[in-house]
Amino acid sequence: MSIFKHTIKRIFRNKIQLIFIILFPLAYMSLGLIDDQRPLKAAIIDHDQTELTERLIRGLETMAEMKAVKEEDIERDLKALKVDYVLVIDQGFTEQLIRGESGGLSEYTVKESNVSRPLSFYLRQWADQVGTIATAADHQSDAFYTSYKQYEDRAPLKLDNRPIENQQEEKSRKVLGFLVIPMLYTSLIAGLQIISNRNNHTLYRTLAAPVRIRSYMLQMIGSFLAVALIQLTFAMLVLKWGYRVPMNDSEWGIYALLILFSVAAVSFGVAVSSISKSILQACLIGICLIEPISMLGGAYGPLDWAPDFVKTISQFTPVYWVMDGIDQLLHGQSLLELGKEAVMIILFAIIFFLFGTIRKTDIAK
Amino acid sequence: MIIEVRNLIKRYNDFLALDHISFSIREGEIFGLLGPNGAGKSTTISILSGLTGFDGGEVLFLGKKIGRNEMDSKRELGIVPQDIALFEDLTAQENLDYFGRLYGLKGKLLKDRVKEALAFTGLTERRKDRPKGFSGGMKRRLNIACAILHHPKLIIMDEPTVGIDPQSRNHIMQSIKELNRMGSTIIYTSHYMEEVEEICTKVAVVDRGRVIAQGTKEDLKSLVSSEEKIMVELSTVNFTMVEGIKKIESISECVVNGNRLDVVGKKGEKNVSRIIQVISESEADILSLNVEKPSLEAVFLTLTGRSLRD
Q1: What is the CATH number that goes with domain A40-160?
Q2: By CB count within 10 A, which of A97, B33, B62, B210 is most buried?
Q3: pTM of the model
């Protein structure tokens, strides 16, 4: 166990490595959070100017940052991302609504984006409720406003601006994806340690002692796994208690799945070391592989937009399977239902491990 | 015999690195392995260390055949690699602790051996420092300490004094002699011929994958020269004296160089006493007298046709 113990000691003694292992995932995950917290920007052009439309606007204001937009500039401002959503309320909308007629509202959003979906969803629910109240008030204006006020004050079916479930899951998925990427990057440290031992000739000396190469590799990988476990545990604690990322009560499942992924990640680092002659080369190869693997695997975001052939290729990355597993866990599946994902991750770990160790046949060369 | 190498063959694809190499080392010897770069020394050492396999021949360690990754023989070996093999981010003591544990040392025994190795190499005061801040000589000493703390029967030292100051070199040379005195057999490779001359009891000259000569230093020197050069510094030189020396049967040349005579004659013919006799018959005083013997460098040059550092 000398190799195991001393490797951990060496990894944690190097301050730069320590910062990289502990803080890099936190910083990366923070990026995921900051991006998600961008306020939704909306504009409302109210040609009706009634008490009801005022109340509608007040409701929407609790969900988005309001901006002023001229009607003729709607398209330009949406394209320039000055606003994400514009609602135009036609004159006579309130009267139409009380009469039980639909129409009078026009929504403008960027087609490719779904960020304003909560506002549309809110508006639709509000219109349904208000339509029901109008029917109940027999389409009489005074009775309608009396009922509407009662509804707003006391109704058990009160409209809420709580973010919809999907949005929460997307946010959690994104942050977890931003944990998977630094896990891959820190796995390179495993490879760098092996290269460093090769370059400083301690590998030669170690194997001149009564130590088999298999034992050496297993102890090295064991030490990297221990480091990965510490890193992952710390990151999960920060996710749960620091960043308060909701995980749909699947924290333990996600933790277990990521432990499995860390085995594949460490094996990946070992595989990179086997094809690199120097630390610089390993870093370059690592970066060139990790970025496409992460993108294709969906760590930067779901691949819904991607053509089918890209989706097929993505299945040849371990990241795809861990993100797929995370998706399912966030949607309420249990870890026991993720057999396929677990098997695929283990398979990748074995392939990387064999690739990383099979070449080390003549250490004296 | 502690080591017997018989007809060892090693190929790297089409390149024949070792071509039927044979030599043997007795327990307690300091065995010098001499050869230029690429001669096959490192390959031989790698095979003896169990790190590289071989394609033919056999290696016997303490009478037992060994192959690649033979754990039993590895336990009895101490390797001092040519390149300093230390963890720069561990202290001297931690480096020793690491390598000691690889040889199965633990607990009090390990602690005692670490202390002993540090004291032996004069590094006790620096035991808590990392090699990063060590001088070249101190690193070399720690490099040796890591190889001896498990008390190996055979220590293989591959150029252990490269790039260090004379003081550290002297310390290392004394340490090697001490290790040998304490019972370790040593295989020593070096580019510094004077080191080999100083400490080795037996030498093998390796070139192009073959042992071209081996034996004691005297055996090797006798291979390359049947003559000796005697230089005599005198108070005065005269014609009668020079003619008298030239008349000695075994003397082939006598050149006057100011007040110095450079005399060349056949080895082993009591030339010195005969020359002194001739000089004493004249009125000259002998100020100094030197007999120049062939060096290992000359042996090497003669046998391989090139200098050791080529």
Answers
A1: 3.40.1710
A2: B33
A3: 0.70
